[in-house]
Amino acid sequence: MAERGAERLRGGIDLGGTKIQTVVVDGRNTVVGEARTPTPTKGGPGDVAAVMVGALRTAAEAAGVATADLTHVGVGSPGQVNAAAGTVTSARNLPGWEASYALGPELAAQFGTPIALGNDVQVATDAEAQLGAGRDYSSMLGVFWGTGVGGGIVLDGRPWLGGGGAGEIGHVVVKLDGAPCPCGRRGCMEAYAGRNAMERRARELHAKGEATELFKLAHKRGRERLTSGIWAAALEREDALAGKLIARAVEALGAGVASVDNVLDIEVIILGGGLGVRLGQSYADKIAAAMLPHLFNDHRPPPVVVAELGDLGGAIGASLLTPAVAASAA
C-alpha cells in the first residue's frame, strides 16, 4: 500500500450528473492528487464506469501512486445504492442507467483495490459534518443543488439512511400536479430547482421566443449542457430568463427545504452542489428568506450556510467510506 508521510492513501470518486470528480487523500484528509472530467451524456453505466476509471487513474498519477497502491476507493453515486452488493440502480441523471449495475465489482477489478459505495449526497454531507461547515453541529441537512436536488441527513451526530433511500429531498412535492420531474412524477422540488429541469424549461421558453444568453454562453464554452458556471455567468449579465428561472428555483427550494425542517427540526442547513457552491452565500441567504414563510418554528430558523469543502466535498466524503462495506475484486 502507498504511504505518504507514514499515512496510507485512499481514493474518492464523486459521480455527478455533469462531472466526475476524483481525489487521492492521505490520512489527514489532505488532497494529494485530483482530477475532474465531464460525465458522459450517451451510452450506459459501462461507459460511465470507464470514465470514472480514467479519472481516478489521473488523480493517482498526480499523487505519484498507482490505484492498486490505495487502501481502498470510495464512490459516491446517485441512484439506489446497495453498498453490500456493490450495485447502483436507477441513477436517472446518468445515461441509460435504470437497471441495476455492479459498479463496485467492476471498479474493484479495474483498480485492484477494494471499493466502498455510498449515496453521493450523503457522503458529501458526512464530509461537511466531519470536516466542514457542519462540524460544530450534531444535526444537519445537506442540500445539494446541482443537476438535481439531493439531500443528506445527520441526526445526533450520525448519518440517517433510513431503509437506504433517505434524504431524497428533491422529491418533496412543492406543487400538486405541478411541473414534470425527471423522476417521472409531478410537482417535485427538483422539477423546479434541478439544473436538468431548469435547462429543459429554458429551452422550452427560448423556443417560444424568450431571449436569453444561456445557450450562446454554452456554445462559446463548448458545453452541451447549461453548467453551473453558465447559469452564474448569465446572472452576472442580468439575463432575464436566467434570473426568472433561478428565482423560481429558489422559491421551490425555500418551500421544500422548510417542509423537511418542519419534520426534522435540525440545527443547520448546508448548501452544496454545483449551483449552491457557485452562487454562494448570497443565494444561501435567498433560500433562507424563501424558507421563512413556510417554517413552523419561524422564530428560530436554522442558518443556511455554504459547504466549506466546495466541489471536492463529495469526493473527499466518498474517500471516508469504510472498506468494511467495500465490494472487492474477489
Topology at a glance:
Elements: E1 3-4, E2 7-8, E3 10-15, E4 19-25, E5 31-38, H1 45-63, E6 73-77, E7 80-82, E8 87-89, H2 103-111, E9 115-119, H3 120-131, E10 140-145, E11 149-155, E12 158-159, H4 190-193, H5 195-207, H6 214-220, H7 228-236, H8 240-264, E13 268-272, H9 273-279, H10 281-291, E14 304-306, H11 313-319
Parallel strand pairs: 3-6, 6-9, 10-13, 13-14
Antiparallel strand pairs: 1-2, 3-4, 4-5, 7-8, 10-11, 11-12
Question: How would you describe this structure to a colleague?
Answer:
The chain has helices at residues 45-63, 103-111, 120-131, 190-193, 195-207, 214-220, 228-236, 240-264, 273-279, 281-291, 313-319, and strands at 3-4, 7-8, 10-15, 19-25, 31-38, 73-77, 80-82, 87-89, 115-119, 140-145, 149-155, 158-159, 268-272, 304-306. The chain is of the alpha/beta class and 330 residues long. The protein has two domains: 3-123 and 313-325, ATPase, nucleotide binding domain (Nucleotidyltransferase, domain 5, 2-Layer Sandwich), CATH 3.30.420.40; 137-308, ATPase, nucleotide binding domain (Nucleotidyltransferase, domain 5, 2-Layer Sandwich). It has a five-stranded mixed sheet, with helices on both faces. α3 packs across α11 (313-319) and α8 (240-264) crosses α10 (281-291).
